[in-house]
Amino acid sequence: MNNSGTPKSSSSELDLDRPNIEDYLPSGSTIQQEPHGKLFLHDLLNISPTLSEAAGAIVDDSFTRCFKSNPPEPWNWNVYLFPLWCFGVVIRYLILFPIRVIGLTIGWIIFLSSFIPVHFLLKGHDKLRRSIERSLVEMMCSFFVASWTGVVKYHGPRPSRRPKQVFVANHTSMIDFIILEQMTAFAVIMQKHPGWVGLLQSTILESLGCIWFNRTEAKDREIVARKLRDHVQGADNNPLLIFPEGTCVNNHYTVMFKKGAFELGCTVCPVAIKYNKIFVDAFWNSRKQSFTMHLLQLMTSWAVVCDVWYLEPQNLKPGETPIEFAERVRDIISVRAGLKKVPWDGYLKYSRPSPKHRERKQQNFAESVLRRWEEK
């Protein structure tokens, strides 16, 4: 979280998802107003403790919009379309899904049978070994994208390996990495995960120079910052990819960018990713769904459709702070991908109160306002 400053935001950003207080009032209730229809500020300040809590709930409500997957509107519940929808389910689950599983399995067999010998037998030929491993990882990521019937359009020049440059992208799911990796073998900075994903991180992806962190460990920040500076100095290292939001956002918004990638003293190359929800929502809500279930959801959909833009590299301007630099790059990515900027830190989603607690506070606030006006 950036403590040294707060990004500027427009009034439209702060008006996002403003709740309607009437929704929390008992049915048939009305709030009496002054004779001229004006609600005076001092009347609200008389209940300032409750108002402060309610304001925090309103902020939280706006914040949670960034991390919710909005279900699509139902279209199949009529006599004409329901049989067609059932036919589509049969095609996706009984035909496409087995074919995709077989294809992905073949990909893993080819990958592992090539990667393991290269990794262990070419220990003394690091340059050749890294080159082959990069190509194998790109190939495996292509198998993953094929298993979703991925339709990905890349715009702009393909990234190249150069010292003192870092790529930053908005973040919707861990598949962002796979989609970008099939074109260029990036070294990514990523949260350490448990299970089979963690096993891949500590073995295969480790060979790409990837850097892992644990957000619960305060000492990790200094270690990661040092590794980042060392990595961007190497001419032969894979291009460094960072998701500065620090968490998955639902591809409608962008939250604050962490400033770490913008104080390395190197060129920043923005990457904008925009998913089309026509067939499936690619947003991964890690608090409600495991990554395995997320992949199954993608593999049982018709297709994953997205656009990737490699945008013009940016450098720190004279007199510009890293926070301002981060906001300028976020502006560029948000405009290109058609995303709304919101002034929240994504890490707050790991310390939010439960929805029931928030709703109870909102209800109490509505009731206190009602009692206040009934007393007058």
- Overall, the morphology is globular
Give the fraction of residues assigned to helices. 40-55%
Largest beta-sheet details: 7 strands, mixed
Strand content: 5-15%
Q: Which structural class matches the secondary elements? A: alpha/beta
Rg, alpha carbons: 24 Å
Mean pLDDT value: 80
Succession of helices and strands? HHHHHEEHEHEHEEEHEHEH
The end-to-end distance, rounded to whole angstroms, is 44 Å
Give the strand order, joined by hyphens, for the main sheet.
1-8-7-2-5-3-4
Number of E strands: 9
In DSSP terms (H or I, runs of 4 or more residues), the helix count works out at: 11
Low-confidence runs of at least 5 consecutive residues: 1-25, 28-35
Family: Belongs to the 1-acyl-sn-glycerol-3-phosphate acyltransferase family.
Pathway: Lipid metabolism
InterPro entries: LPCAT1-like, Plipid/glycerol_acylTrfase
Keywords: Acyltransferase, Lipid biosynthesis, Lipid metabolism, Membrane, Phospholipid biosynthesis, Phospholipid metabolism, Transferase, Transmembrane, Transmembrane helix
